[in-house]
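User: I've been trying to design a sequence by hand for this structure and keep getting stuck. Would you show me what you'd pick, starting by listing the structure so we're on the same page?

Assistant: Good idea, let's start from the same input. This is the structure you sent:
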């Protein structure tokens, strides 16, 4: 929702792919890969915010620096973990069969924490997403809220890595909200529809993956893309009518 409002889709791509370095490092050191991925994702998100917020370099440039650097680190570490390459493929593209009880608990804690923080700071986050300059003029700590939003993006990405995969999770951040934006008549409706479309994509995608023996991440994102295509076609038809 906030990613689409602030046009931060590329941030999601950069942070999600940077998590590969954390996963590979975790497997190499025997640390929980999701914990390592969370640390990596948050660190890269903050670095993007720090470098992109100084004025000399744009946010896109910062992503262009840290995204390939973290990916290169992940690839280099993968070369040293030959016994874990099958696991790494699961992290890259998503595999519901690799999800264990501990992963579900970890993801639930991340999602629950992110929801609580979002609910508490919803108005402030919405304000800076719509008009950061006005929010700053109104006395809101825009820089801190921006770092908070980057942290929430990183947390959300890591919570979905095992199911959707590092390569595709950024699409899951953007597509449901973009679909909702096409059909919603208000911010409140857009938020509700974003959640609805995401749930439909996850539940339906997992069902399709089970029936067709597909990677869960691919099935979820393809269904989300199909919903977006349908919403776009429907909105154009209604405008012409």
């Amino acid at each position: 929702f906030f990613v689409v409002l602030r046009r931060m889709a590329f941030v999601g791509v950069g942070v999600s792919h940077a998590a590969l370095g954390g996963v590979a490092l975790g497997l190499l050191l025997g640390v929980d890969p999701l914990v390592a991925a969370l640390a990596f994702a948050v660190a890269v998100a903050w670095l993007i915010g720090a470098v992109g917020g100084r004025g000399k370099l744009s946010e896109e440039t910062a992503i262009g620096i840290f995204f390939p650097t973290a990916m290169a680190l992940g690839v280099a570490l993968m070369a040293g973990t030959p016994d874990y390459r099958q696991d790494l493929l699961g992290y890259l593209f998503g595999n519901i069969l690799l999800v264990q009880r501990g992963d579900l608990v970890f993801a639930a804690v991340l999602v629950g924490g992110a929801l609580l923080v979002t609910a508490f700071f919803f108005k402030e986050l919405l304000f800076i997403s719509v008009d950061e300059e006005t929010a700053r003029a109104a006395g809101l700590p825009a820089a801190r809220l921006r770092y908070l939003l980057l942290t929430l993006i990183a947390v959300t990405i890591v919570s979905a890595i095992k199911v959707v995969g590092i390569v595709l999770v950024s699409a899951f951040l953007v597509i449901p909200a973009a679909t909702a934006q096409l059909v919603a008549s208000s911010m409140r409706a857009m938020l509700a529809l974003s959640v609805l479309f995401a749930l439909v994509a996850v539940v339906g995608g997992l069902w399709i993956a089970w029936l067709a023996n597909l990677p869960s991440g691919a099935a979820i994102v393809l269904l989300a893309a199909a919903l977006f295509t349908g919403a776009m076609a429907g909105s154009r038809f209604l405008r012409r009518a």
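That's my pick for every position. To get oriented when you compare it with your attempt: The mean pLDDT is 81. Residues 2-162 form a domain with the ABC transporter involved in vitamin B12 uptake, BtuC fold (CATH 1.10.3470.10).
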